[in-house]
Design a protein that fits this description.
The protein is an alpha/beta fold and about 170 residues long. It has a single domain, classed as Rossmann fold. The chain contains five helices and five strands; from the N terminus they run αβαβαβαβαβ. Strands 3-2-1-4-5 form a five-stranded parallel sheet, with helices on both faces. Helix 2 links the parallel strand 1 and strand 2. It is globular and about 45 Å long. The N and C termini lie far apart (about 65 Å). The relative contact order is 0.20. Pfam families: Usp. Belongs to the universal stress protein A family. This is Universal stress protein.
């Protein structure tokens, strides 16, 4: 036994984590992203890893050099993230949850964030327009190009299995 080794403080476990350990969850306010946020929190807790909720924003393509007085897409994104966290955790979000609002298109921004993450967790479908698709464009792009493992969560993933209704499997 090495008696010269320094004693570890109770907070020493937090010292061993780096930014590369974090579980990053992409949040767009959809039911699937809220389920992903809950699932990501469970994984972060199980792995004793940091948890980061990320939402992205861009200016609408129709905006030119003119801006609408008093409107900020970044502020809207912050409000969306706060509302999603409230929906996911009510009044008890994880104490160490990091909230990030980043400028840029969702897929490329999340792929860039994945370079410094242990896992990227996403909902299978966001607010996109093609309802029949199993995966949205952001989750598809991230699954194909992320630099860390990607977990894609369905909206009902945080519902106990016993209370889920069976969905028919389409035949081809």
């Amino acid at each position: 036994m090495d008696t010269d080794a320094p004693a570890r403080s109770p907070d020493a476990a937090d010292d061993r984590h780096t930014e590369d350990d974090r579980i990053v969850v992409g949040v767009d306010g959809s039911a699937a992203s809220i389920a992903a946020l809950r699932y990501g929190a469970r994984i972060a807790d199980a792995l004793d890893a940091p948890l980061e909720a990320v939402t992205t924003w861009t200016y609408p393509p129709i905006m030119d050099s003119y801006t609408i007085a008093g409107w900020s897409p970044e502020d809207d994104a912050e409000k969306l993230l706060d509302a999603a966290i409230a929906d996911a955790f009510a009044s008890d979000p994880p104490a160490d949850l990091v909230r990030s609002v980043l400028a840029g298109p969702a897929a490329p921004t999340l792929i860039d964030v994945s370079r410094r993450a242990g896992m990227l967790v996403l909902g299978n479908r966001g607010h996109g327009g093609f309802v029949g698709l199993l995966l949205g464009s952001v989750s598809t792009a991230c699954a194909a190009h992320a630099k860390c493992p990607v977990l894609i969560v369905h909206a009902h993933a945080d519902v106990p299995a016993a209370s889920r209704q069976s969905e028919p499997v389409p035949h081809r």
